[in-house]
Amino acid sequence: MGVSEVDEVKKLEGLGYAQVLKRGWGRFTNIAVTISAMAVLMSIYSTFKTGLVNGGPVVCLWAWIWVALGNICIALGMAELASAYPTSGGMYFWIHQLSNDTWGPGLCWVTGWLNLLGQIASLASSSSIITNILSDITLLSTGTAYCCNAPPELPSTPPLAPLAPPMAPGTTADYVALPTGPGRHFTMQQSYAIFVGCIFITTLINTLPYKYVHWITEAGGYWNILGVIIVIIVIPAVATQHASADWVFRSFETAQAESASGITDKFNIFIMGLLLPSYSFIGYDGAAHMAEESLNFI
Questions:
Q1: pLDDT at residue 148 greater than cutoff 50
Q2: What is the C-alpha to C-alpha distance for residues 206 and 16, in angstroms, rounded to an integer?
Q3: Contact in structure between 90 and 289 (CB atoms under 8 Å)
Q4: Long-range contacts of residues 13-22, Cβ cutoff 8 Å, at least 24 apart
Q5: SS3 labels along 69-128
Q6: Spatial separation of the C-alpha atoms in residues 52 and 255, rounded to whole Å
Q7: Which sequence spans correspond to the domains of the chain?
Q8: Who wins on pLDDT, 173 or 281?
Q9: Is the pLDDT reported for residue 170 higher than 70?
Q10: What's the Cα-to-Cα distance from 71 to each of 10, 22, 144, 164, 279, rounded to whole Å?
């Protein structure tokens, strides 16, 4: 046991904890937990439509910046607490240390259960997203919902019109000849089986020996980072049509939200659109929950 690990064990003992979990995760492994939990690309995929419908470009761009700044402030506060109380319990233990005997136990109980239920909901949500992704891949590889020679109807508002590429072959560099005809859709039973399979695989990974979980965690972190870099580079590189700067930076779309949900108040539409950036900032407390398995790498 190294000097750093001995110090961490003593610190846990000072907090009333005994070192039980194997301590060996390094800097990147700890960070990879958070990177994989946030899974930015998967989060955007599942909520991008929500942002486009509820506010459009203003939400997709500026709301991202506002939500990011707010979450950075929260993360900095959590990081300070995690460094002072490095236990796997995280938030409920922090509350125990910072509150009094009157309110502490009740607040710890509520916080612990909310955190657990949130993690369960996050796992179910991620499994549902993976199911939808596989369904979309299957649909696009076996056929399309409409004929490639007849584009779907798009909103008639002028800013969106230039974004509709012709669907006829050879008329634009963006054209891709997708399989024609009705595509294959998963049945409800097939979708549910994939959903359950995702949860089963996740459970199985967590039962593997320590070193394998370590490798899988780091691989997930690298995969998410690489995916973001590829998307940032490839999409602008291959796109041949672009919206105007005015539309990207200033356009606030409400027509689709009003027709789809009946919401007419712009503030409420904006709040609904915040689901896009907010969903991508779920899980950044993951590093704190792995504190008892991580070495002090400061």
A1: no
A2: 26
A3: yes
A4: 15/85, 15/87, 15/93, 15/97, 17/87, 17/292, 19/292, 20/292, 21/88, 21/292, 21/293, 22/210, 22/293
A5: HHHHHHHHHHHHHHHHCCCCCCHHHHHHHHCCCCCHHHHHHHHHHHHHHHHHHHHHHHHH
A6: 11
A7: 22-293
A8: 281
A9: no
A10: 32, 30, 39, 35, 11
* Residues in contact with 10: Cβ distance below 8 Å, sequence separation at least 6, in sequence order: none
Q: In Å, how far are 191, 224, 227, 283 from 123, measured between CA atoms?
A: 16, 17, 21, 11
What is the per-residue DSSP string for the chain? --HHHHHHHHHHHHTT----SPP-B-HHHHHHHHHHHH-HHHHHHHHHHHHHHTBTHHIIIIIHHHHHHHHHHHHHHHHHHHHHS--TTTHHHHHHHHS-TTTHHHHHHHHHHHHHHHHHHHHHHHHHHHHHHHHHHHHHHH--SS-TTSPPP----TTTGGG----STTS-TT---PPPSPPP---HHHHHHHHHHHHHHHHHHHTS-HHHHHHHHHHHHHHHHHHHHHHHHHHHHH------HHHHHH--B-HHHHHHH----HHHHHHHHTHHHHHTTTTTTHHHHTGGGB----
The residue with greater pLDDT, 148 or 280, is 280
What would the mean pLDDT of 214-241 be, rounded to a whole number? 91
Residue 66 CA to residue 44 CA, distance in Å, equals 16
Q: Which two tokens stand for residue 174?
A: 């963006």
Cβ pair 22, 210 in contact under 8 A: yes
